[in-house]
Amino acid sequence: MSSIFTKIIRGELPCYKIDETDDCFAFLDINPNKKGHTLCILKKEVDYIFDLNSEDYQKLMNFSRKIALALKKSVNCKRIALSVVGLEVPHVHVHLIPLESMSDMNFRKSIKLGDNEFKSIVKKIKSNLK
């Protein structure tokens, strides 16, 4: 059975897409910790990050770095945190979260954003991609 992320990649479920390559895909988290909270995933469906081979791991990390650099230019924050938890969706994914304080890493609290806010963030991040 396909993960929810595979369904997003295939276009079966909507998302606020930021970027994609042949191997990776980035989109905004719909239950963000902070404005700009982004998920980076491999298109290949693998459950656990340390089950990835070195090449796929590097692809995901390099892609995540590119997105994080654009995200940092797009939202007001001290830095972009990278977190790999992977318990809620059995598909390797990296959380990129704009930080002002450590409490911004609390996955039990999320903020609500409207459709126009999500679209505005995507547009801004895309404009900062190189």
Describe the structure.
The chain is an alpha+beta fold. The chain has a single domain, classed as HIT family, subunit A. 31% of the residues lie in helices and 20% in strands. The chain is built from three helices and five strands; from the N terminus they run H-E-E-E-H-E-E-H. It has a five-stranded antiparallel beta sheet. The radius of gyration is 14 Å and the shape is globular. The mean pLDDT is 95.
Task: Tell me the layout of helices and strands.
Blueprint: H1 4-9, E1 17-20, E2 24-28, E3 38-42, H2 54-74, E4 79-83, E5 93-99, H3 115-127
Antiparallel strand pairs: 1-2, 2-3, 3-5, 4-5
Helix pairs in contact: 2-3
Distinctive features:
alpha+beta, HIT family, subunit A, 5-stranded antiparallel β-sheet, 3 helices, globular
How much strand content do the residues show? 15-25%
CATH superfamily: HIT-like
CATH level-3 fold name: HIT family, subunit A
Number of domains: 1
Structural class: alpha+beta
CATH architectural label: 2-Layer Sandwich
Strand order of the largest sheet: 1-2-3-5-4
Q: Averaged pLDDT, please?
A: 95
Approximately how much helix is present in the residues?
25-40%
How many beta-strand segments? 5
Output the number of helix runs. Answer: 3
